[in-house]
Amino acid sequence: MTLSMHQASAPVFVRALSNLAHVLKKGEEHAAAKNVSDEVLLQTRLIPDMLPLIKQIQIACDMATRGSARLAGVEPQAFEDNETTLAQAYSRIERSIDYVKSFTADQIDGSETRAIHLKMRSGELNFDGQTYLLTFLIPNLFFHCTTAYNILREAGTSIGKSDFIGES
Question: Do the Cβ atoms of 115 and 132 come closer than 8 Å?
Answer without folding.
Answer: no
